């Protein structure tokens, strides 16, 4: 893995942003907290075929794993185009720029499905975190169209880079950087933007992950080549949403 700064705030307060494809070998980070570049992985369906963005159901959360085989992520096709870049700030004061969605309508987004508050995440048994459609209701927020963690009723707005808009979570969900090959209608995961919680996740859930993946070390293995993508309802037995 090679860690790089994706966006950086200079002393003058100027926010610098760049596309991942434009910064290979540039803008090396001092601590790697804002952007981490990992091996590019093709999103594939349960049959191993490339995920086609046009075939994704709108406002249905899909699950894939990246950058580790045990770190779940959400893939969501939102109902409207997203063309606006969003400046986000971590709870420690670092500012970075989310570039929006991918695809022809710029409405396909991906985020870590590990809640930035208490690390709630989907697993094969249940999921207390999910996406609530625009017309849906949640106790966490006054409207739908948000990712909701029902463990402590935090809400994140995927239209604003999964910015925390309600509840105890202070950090946005980490964004999964997507690269879209429009000519071949293929989408790849290539990095993580924002304050990822992977170290804490592996430490806190070590026993459960070791049991599920045969060992804690195997759970930390990085995804290579491709990653399977399924609906959240197919991935887990029960979705709990308040």
General description of the model:
With 242 residues, the protein is mostly beta strands. It has one domain: Rieske [2Fe-2S] iron-sulphur domain (Rieske Iron-sulfur Protein, 3-layer Sandwich). It is built from four helices and 17 strands. The strands form five sheets. Strands 1, 4, 14, 15 and 16 form a five-stranded mixed beta sheet that branches. It is globular and about 40 Å long. The relative contact order is 0.22. Mean pLDDT is 88; it is low at 1-32. It holds the Pfam family Rieske. InterPro entries: Rieske_2Fe-2S, Rieske_2Fe-2S_sf. Keywords: 2Fe-2S, Iron, Iron-sulfur, Metal-binding. Residues 70-187 form the Rieske domain.
Keywords:
mainly beta; 32% strand; 4 helices; 242 residues; 10% helix; 2Fe-2S; disordered N terminus; Rieske_2Fe-2S; Rieske Iron-sulfur Protein; five-stranded mixed beta sheet; metal-binding; Rieske 2Fe-2S domain-containing protein; Rieske_2Fe-2S_sf
Short synopsis of the structure:
This protein has 242 residues and is mainly β. The chain has one domain (2-235): Rieske Iron-sulfur Protein (3-layer Sandwich).
Topology:
Elements: E1 2-3, E2 7-9, E3 15-17, E4 35-44, E5 62-65, E6 72-77, E7 86-89, E8 95-98, E9 108-112, E10 129-132, E11 146-149, E12 154-157, E13 163-166, E14 175-181, E15 186-193, H1 198-204, H2 206-213, H3 216-219, E16 225-228, E17 230-231, H4 232-235
Parallel strand pairs: 4-16
Antiparallel strand pairs: 1-4, 2-3, 4-15, 5-6, 5-17, 6-9, 7-8, 10-11, 11-12, 12-13, 14-15
């Amino acid at each position: 893995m090679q860690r790089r700064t994706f966006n950086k705030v200079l002393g003058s307060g100027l926010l610098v942003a760049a596309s991942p494809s434009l910064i290979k070998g540039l803008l090396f980070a001092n601590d790697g907290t804002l952007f981490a570049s990992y091996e590019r992985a093709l999103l594939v369906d349960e049959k191993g075929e490339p995920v086609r963005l046009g075939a994704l159901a709108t406002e249905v959360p899909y699950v894939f794993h990246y950058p580790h085989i045990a770190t779940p992520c959400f893939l969501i096709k939102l109902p409207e185009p997203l063309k606006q870049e969003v400046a986000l700030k971590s709870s420690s004061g670092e500012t970075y720029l989310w570039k929006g969605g991918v695809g022809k309508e710029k409405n396909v987004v991906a985020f870590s499905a590990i809640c930035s508050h208490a690390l709630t995440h989907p697993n094969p048994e249940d999921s207390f975190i999910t996406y609530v459609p625009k017309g849906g209701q949640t106790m966490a927020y006054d409207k739908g169209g948000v990712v909701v963690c029902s463990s402590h009723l935090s809400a994140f707005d995927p239209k604003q880079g999964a910015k925390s808009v309600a509840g105890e979570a202070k950090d946005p969900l980490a964004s999964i950087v997507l690269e879209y090959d429009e000519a071949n209608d293929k989408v790849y995961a290539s990095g993580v933007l924002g304050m990822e919680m992977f170290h804490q996740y592996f430490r806190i859930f070590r026993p459960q992950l070791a049991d599920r993946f045969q060992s804690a070390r195997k759970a930390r293995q990085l995804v290579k080549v491709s990653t399977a993508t399924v609906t959240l309802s197919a991935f887990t037995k029960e979705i709990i949403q308040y």
